[in-house]
Description:
By secondary structure, the protein is α+β, with helices and mostly antiparallel strands. It has three domains: about 1-30 and about 225-335, Outer membrane lipoprotein wza fold like (Roll), CATH 3.10.560.10; about 60-125, wza like fold (2-Layer Sandwich), CATH 3.30.1950.10; about 125-220, Outer membrane lipoprotein wza domain like (Outer membrane lipoprotein wza fold like, Roll), CATH 3.10.560.10. About 20% of the residues lie in helices and about 30% in strands. The protein contains seven helices and 16 strands. The longest helix has 20 residues, at about 1-20. The two termini are about 30 Å apart. The model is unreliable at about 1-35, about 45-50, about 175-180 and about 310-335 (pLDDT under 50).
Amino acid sequence: MRxxxxxxxxxxxxxxxxxxxxxxxxxxxxxxxxxxPSLAPWAGTWAAQQDYVIGxxxxxxxxxxxxxxxxxKHRVSAQGNIRIAFVGEIKASGFTESQLADVVRDKLKAQLxxxxxxxFVEEHRNQLVTIFGFVRTPGRYELPAGSxxxxxxxxxxxxxxxxxxTAVIVRAASRHDDDSSNxxxxxxxxxxxxxxxxxxxxxxxxxxxxxxxxxxxxTIAQAEKVFVSGNVNTPGVFDLRGKLTLSQVVAMAGGxxxxxxxxxVVIVRQDADKARKVQLVVDLGRMEKHPEExxxxxxxxxxxxxxxxxxxxxxxxxxxxxxxxALLPLYMIRR
Length: 335
């Protein structure tokens, strides 16, 4: 009987550990434990224009106070340039309205005393933005100028059920400098990264609704996972959203089967420095009676609920399986 139980436990742990070491594949809605985040809080809202960056084919209205002949309408070329009297051809794309006004003002100082310049974008051209990852329709989208993240998510069909909680926006930031030695203008492009908390965005937090600019690339990663196996009704892989506790994930796995050993639930996790795996042994029954002690799960945690007939075990089982070469060092902690 004991040898049969040992083989059964070994088989359970072998499958569990292989599951933990195998990258998670995208799951169908049938496997999703939570509904996809909803864009409902943003229904009926309008995208606010924030510090619009001038781009090719925009129409600019340039005004110089007291010098109407120097002003006028200027269409930005495909190369991003405009031509102004007494200034010549200058780079316009990559600047905001106020930044470009400062550039023109500095150029006019050779001709005028303290020139006052204002520039307005009279006609915006659409901007191309790309979105990858766990949205229903990833791809490249043409958005009106001044659009924000929620507008792009809406066009991409919204988030998938197993989308993560962070959007990563990579954007190219242009900087224009004048080389005083030869009077030439040089351009520099650097990449900036902005992280957006999708939980706040889906809750209607306007501060999380990041503005988008031409050329932005948005990536929605897959949600982190936790693994549940053993004496539960529906073993599987579950999305880690927000603060997920042990008792919650056991409920998501359909609850415990009869004759489960609640006092010795095993959690295998990788410690902070990723140098080893730690095995926690926790009392689920106590946590159910004292919710404040309920263990908060971490990404890639493995939860195993033993049957009541199972004996306590740790490194000896792994030694028997001969799997040390496939795992980081394992340490047992009883809580």
